[in-house]
Amino acid sequence: MVTTESIIHVRNMVKKFGGFVANDNLNFDVYRGEIFGFLGANGAGKTTAMKILCGLSLPTSGEIKVAGFDVYKETNLIKRNIGYMSQRFSLYEDLSVYENIRFYGGIYGLSRKLIRERADFLLETLNLSDIRNKLIKDLPLGWRQKLAFSVAIFHKPGIVFLDEPTGGVDPITRRQFWEMIYQAAADGITVFVTTHYMDEAEYCNRVSIMVDGKIRALDTPEGLKKQFAAATMNEVFLKLARNNQSV
Amino acid sequence: MEKNAVIAENLSKSFKKVNAVKSVSFGIGKGELFGFIGPDGAGKSTLFRMLVTLLLPDEGKASISGLDVVSDFRKVRNILGYMPGKFSLYQDLTVEQNLNFYATIFGTTVKENYHLIKDIYVQIEPFKNRLAGNLSGGMKQKLALSCALIHKPEVLVLDEPTTGVDAVSRKEFWEMLGRLKHEGITILVSTPYMDEAILCDRVALIQDGSILRIDKPDEITKSFGKPVFAVKSDRTHDLILDLKSFRGVEAANLFGNQVHVVMNNSDVDAGQITTFLKEKGQTSLDVREIEAGIEDCFIDLMINKS
Question: Closest Cα of chain A to B220: distance in Å?
């Protein structure tokens, strides 16, 4: 359920590295329960912004709140109330399926009993009960990504940040992954996702597109296609980013 | 036989428990732009590493311009350009130093083959004194391609050059490959992006270490053989479930804001699907028959193989 309650609140966000302005006065809200697509060309400043929102990097200036907490003073509370999953690293390869779940549950301070209960439910839902003691490195990539997502929301965070979660994943698993994202959103988790697959941009409630450190467009996929007179999100993206190519 | 720039016969490679490449065979013509399309873990990189003489096959054989990749590996390396998936240039050398280094190793000069890399290199030349490690992703990719080309290889092997690259840069990269093809260079490129298949002369769809299909992209899509409909409504999520309950529906998959429906027979038309969905309470419907795309074909091959 998309609400009108702002769970990520960004006003005049600026991040400079020396003379280079990576985030140039960003303003946006993400609403509770929303699937928010955060798009942009390589080097547009997405990762910089995401690090700030996850409490991993301080902005140069601006007023930013995530899950109600201040990104300057309450980074620990932010970290406790969000989930994060990246394409490259998400699970420990030399730990088993269950050990990974227990590890992440423990980090977020869940009790042993709660970890056990939720893990049983999770493994059953994912059809992984039989291989709970298998090492992650022996699992196919598609399974790993689905498990990584489940682990990222295991502590039932208010928001989950997904950084290119489906890169390189086969077309069937990619779609199953999005069904899981829909389910998480239906359960009230706000999803903040980056992707290079433009068809996936269509699955988001709203999409922002960053170009050279600025948010150049923000609307529903339908709204953006109308605004840029484009048939697909791919066209929208090419129109916006093409004229602003920095090498 | 002689017309083929690259030949593989029953190539296989296993790592402990994993059969990464399972008896793969193909022939790639001289000057062809040939794509290996498949997800991570399909065996693309292992296959490429055998072709570029960095990995010994367990079984089978392969040749580049008639030279065996095992017994003639030194000669093969001279006529090959390889860009691995992971950036592997010297991070602590500058852009220019890297390029000179690769030219020197292959006994040539940057000047001699500059025409080949000009289009690509001019874009990073303003940064020629910057350390390679300090380049952005897009610039690294352009430098890596320049270094792989500087000795004028007969065959260029590019392992996932567009993975993690945004839609704009991907488009530009493929335009560059098109120009290199006109120079007569045979190009092997792997990608997990299904939409890049149509930019190749021929493609091999690869999954779980096996090739599912080799053909021209439009031949693959034309021979799909089953009717496909693109369906839109204002409730996409229920739409898939509703469609799956329609008679004769073999698959219903999300493609952006549409659902692609594959029928197992051709006696259904768009009107009948519309009527059925209206009865299910779907509104703002748009149903039209379309030609299958590469991703439709790939999904179909994956399902019918397992």
Answer: 17
Place of tokens 């359960």: A187
Comparing CA positions, the residue from A40, A85, A64, A47 lying closest to residue A189 is A85
Q: Which domain holds residue A106?
A: 35-44+79-242
What is the number of structural domains in chain A? 1
Chain B residues closer than 8 Å to A202 by CB: 256-257
Chain A with chain B: Cβ pairs closer than 8 A: 95
Report the alpha-carbon angle A59-A62-A68, nearest 5.
90
Question: Which CATH number do you get for residue B236?
Answer: 3.30.70.2070
Q: Does B134 touch chain A (CB under 8 A)?
A: no
Q: Which of A167, A202, A238 sits opposite B171 (nearest CB)?
A: A238
Q: Does B147 lie in the same domain as B233? A: no
Residues of B in contact with A238 (CB under 8 A): 167-168, 171
Q: What does the pLDDT look like over B112-163, one tens digit per residue?
A: 999 999 988 998 999 999 999 988 777 888 999 999 999 999 999 999 998 8
Q: Which residues of A touch B293 (CB under 8 A)?
A: none
pLDDT per position as a tens digit, B223-248: 998 999 999 998 877 898 899 999 99
Whether B166 and B279 map to the same domain: the answer is: no
B268 phi and psi, to 5 degrees? Answer: -120, 140
Please report whether residue A14 resides in a domain.
no
d(C-alpha A125, C-alpha A137), whole Å: 21
C-alpha B274/C-alpha B277 separation (Å) is 5
Q: Is A5 helix (H, G, I), strand (E, B) or coil?
A: coil
pLDDT tens digit string along A129-166? Answer: 999 999 998 888 888 889 999 999 999 999 999 998 98
Q: Which of A178, A180, A196, A220 to mutate to test the interface with B (most CBs of B within 10 A)?
A: A196
Residue B136 belongs to a domain:
yes
Residue B202 belongs to domain with CATH number: 3.40.50.300
Taking CA–CA distances from B166, the nearest residue in chain A reads A41
Query: Domain span at residue B265?
Result: 225-290
Q: Which residue of B has its CA nearest to A186?
A: B237
